[in-house]
From TrEMBL, chain A:
Biological source species: uncultured Synechococcales cyanobacterium
Protein name: Uncharacterized protein
Domain of life from the UniProt record: Bacteria
UniProtKB/TrEMBL annotation, chain B:
Species, as recorded: uncultured Leptolyngbya sp
PANTHER family found in the cross-reference section: OS01G0127400 PROTEIN
Organism domain of life: Bacteria
Name of this protein: DUF3326 domain-containing protein
């Protein structure tokens, strides 16, 4: 497992739950979300900082 | 008989909160709320003051990842009488500093009567690395998270630990501007974000209470040390408050039973006014809980309740927030406490 500090942006959603879901979906493109926060919110974008984890693929002999 | 009045207090760590961004300096706020509420749920950053802490019998010490799961209604909280605490020490801690941690642990066993299992040293240095985001919030990563999880698993399986205390070696940089600013009460805690990542890893993997204390050599005496940072410069470790908190931290459960606490029982949540972008707050904003935001607890975040689409009562201070809690618990409309009260209006056709 490795840990990574990343940032992301998502569009504002119609509800707080949908916001959480959209953030988790966006972060999952880069790993399993461990901790995140919306650091800056305006009418057009939500800026998110996060730490995600990834699991290394097992090394296989060709 | 009315149900217990339950408050969640959030002061996220590592965001430079004017109150709570230093060495347990939100603990007086927690103490005041615990006096008003029947139950207070808050996280280690609020209750930990390194050597200093305060036992609050109606307060639940809930790690941040666990608090997020609780707020999302995935986990409940099961009160306990005591937890067996397993201590994980980072292999990267040098021997003298490691001995200081063990002596702190022995001190809480002898003087406070807490139950600790035998301890474990990780099989590799954890390799904590610190980062600061563009927002100014501090974050961190660790190079060997698997080593941390292996150690915690050993304590849980073999020593029957019910809570995990982690002590990780943090990078030294005693002359850094960030540390100076923090010690003088106007910076962002440079360690906080990484500390949260460490405990989140354990809680996410094992669904067990966890908290972290950094291992650092003592700092040189600073004659202009801020009172807010002073608690972290009293001794050789940050461990006592962590062990005190974990000793009665609630267990996490996924199926309700009598006596457990679930998110629908939360009556109010209090958070800094510009730090409304956390998972826990977003989830609880969709529940009947009253959201109260405090303006004078400024942070580096720029996520107001309006920007997040959250309906909140905005107050200037925690003193005012306490007043809102008292009125709310008593079933009093706070509008009735103002000099002027508007007459009732007919329901608008545009109302939701």
């Amino acid at each position: 497992m490795t840990t990574h500090f990343i940032s992301a942006e998502i569009a504002p959603q119609e509800s707080a739950i949908k916001t959480c879901q959209a953030i988790e979906a966006e972060l999952q493109k880069q790993g399993e979300p461990l901790r995140w926060a919306i650091t800056h919110a305006d009418a057009e974008k939500l800026h998110v900082e996060a730490v995600v984890t990834t699991v290394a693929e097992p090394i296989t002999t060709p | 008989m009315r149900p217990p009045y339950t408050v969640v207090l959030i002061v996220p760590t590592g965001i430079g909160a004017a109150i709570g961004g230093y060495a347990g300096d939100a603990l007086p706020v927690a103490r005041a709320i615990a006096q008003v509420a029947d139950r207070l749920i808050t996280h280690p950053n609020v209750l930990n003051g390194a050597q200093l802490y305060w036992p609050l019998s109606n307060t639940f010490y809930v790690e941040g990842y666990g608090l997020d799961q609780f707020a999302a209604h995935r986990w409940g909280l099961r009160p306990v009488h005591q937890n067996r605490i397993g201590l994980v020490l980072d292999q990267g801690i040098e021997s003298e500093l490691r001995l200081r941690q063990l002596q702190a642990a022995d001190a809480v066993r002898a003087t406070l009567g807490l139950t600790l299992t035998d301890y474990i040293v990780t099989d590799a240095p954890l390799g904590v690395q610190l980062q600061t985001g563009a927002s100014g919030a501090t974050w961190g990563t660790i190079q060997n998270p698997d080593s941390l999880l292996r150690a915690a698993e050993q304590l849980i399986q073999r020593a029957k630990a019910e809570a995990i205390a982690v002590v990780a070696r943090f990078p030294d940089d005693p002359g850094s501007e960030a540390l100076q600013a923090y010690r003088h009460g106007h910076g962002v805690d440079p360690l906080a974000g990484a500390e949260a990542v460490i405990s989140h890893l354990v809680v996410r993997h094992f669904a067990i209470p966890c908290a972290h204390a950094p291992a650092l050599p003592p700092l040189p005496l600073d004659p202009v040390l801020s009172p807010k940072a002073a608690a972290e410069e009293l001794g050789y470790t940050f461990l006592p408050s962590v062990l005190a908190g974990l000793s009665r931290a609630p267990q996490f459960v996924q199926h309700p039973a009598p006596g457990d606490i679930w998110s629908q029982e939360v009556n109010a949540l209090i958070a800094p006014a510009n730090a409304c972008g956390s998972s826990a707050l977003l989830h609880l904003s969709q529940s009947p809980a009253l959201i109260i935001t405090v303006n004078d607890n400024q942070t580096r975040m720029q996520a107001s309740p309006e920007a997040m689409g959250i309906e909140a009562i905005q107050v200037e201070s925690y003193l005012e927030a306490l007043g809102v809690l008292v009125a709310h618990q008593a079933g009093i409309d706070i509008a009735a406490l103002s000099p002027k009260l508007k007459p009732l209006q007919p329901l608008s056709q545009n109302s939701d």
